[in-house]
Amino acid sequence: MDPYNRLLARKQELEQMTGALRERLMTPLAETTDELSLYDQHPADIGSEVYEREKDNGILELIELELEKVNDALHKYKQGRYGVCEVCGQTIEPGRLNRMVNTTLCAGCAQQRQDSFRRPAEEDVLIAGDMSDRGETFQVAGYEYFESGDGSSSG
Ligand SMILES: [Zn+2]
């Protein structure tokens, strides 16, 4: 499968994930806990259900972030800029693109960014909720993101 079709497949996959999560988040708590009345619930059960929802919300945000990146990569592909490192302008290693179809950094530049932090091997990172509130690179679904560390967040 060529990268364009892989990106499209990934996009479809992510859209399905967001759809399923949204559906779950829109379901009233009483239904998801299989109880007619929340009054019968042990407080701990409601608490864990609320916790699950917050987790779902967080995952949804991460997936939407990756979806954005996939769309960006699709856009680049159409412009003939897909697979070009956005830092050094070199061609990104085919094996690397094969692992992370929407990466925008070559191995060297990604390594440089990662040198200042300790992170597990990028291939091993799935959506792990490993978002950091400190400014640093973090990874979502095997894809690197960078947050500015000067506190002037735009989002
Ligand atoms: Zn590079």
Structural class: mainly alpha
Oligomeric state of shown chains: single chain
Name the hetero compounds present: zinc ion
Label the overall shape: elongated
End-to-end C-alpha gap: 35 Å
Structure, described:
It is a single chain. The protein has 155 residues and is mainly alpha-helical. The protein folds into 2 domains: 1-82; 84-155, no CATH class. It is 51% helix and 5% strand. It has 5 helices and 2 strands. It has helices spanning 3-26, 29-32, 43-78, 94-99, 107-115; strands at 137-140, 143-146. The chain has a two-stranded antiparallel sheet with strand order 1-2. β1 and β2 (143-146) form a beta hairpin. α1 packs antiparallel against α3. It is elongated. Mean pLDDT is 75; it is low at 122-138 and 151-155. The structure holds zinc ion. Zinc ion is lined by residues 85, 87-88, 90, 105-106, 108-109. Residues 85, 87-88, 90, 105-106, 108-109 line the site of zinc ion.
Concise structural overview:
With 155 residues, the protein is mainly α.
Break the fold down into its secondary structure elements and pairings.
Blueprint: H1 3-26, H2 29-32, H3 43-78, H4 94-99, H5 107-115, E1 137-140, E2 143-146
Helix pairs in contact: 1-3
Bound molecules: zinc ion (ZN).
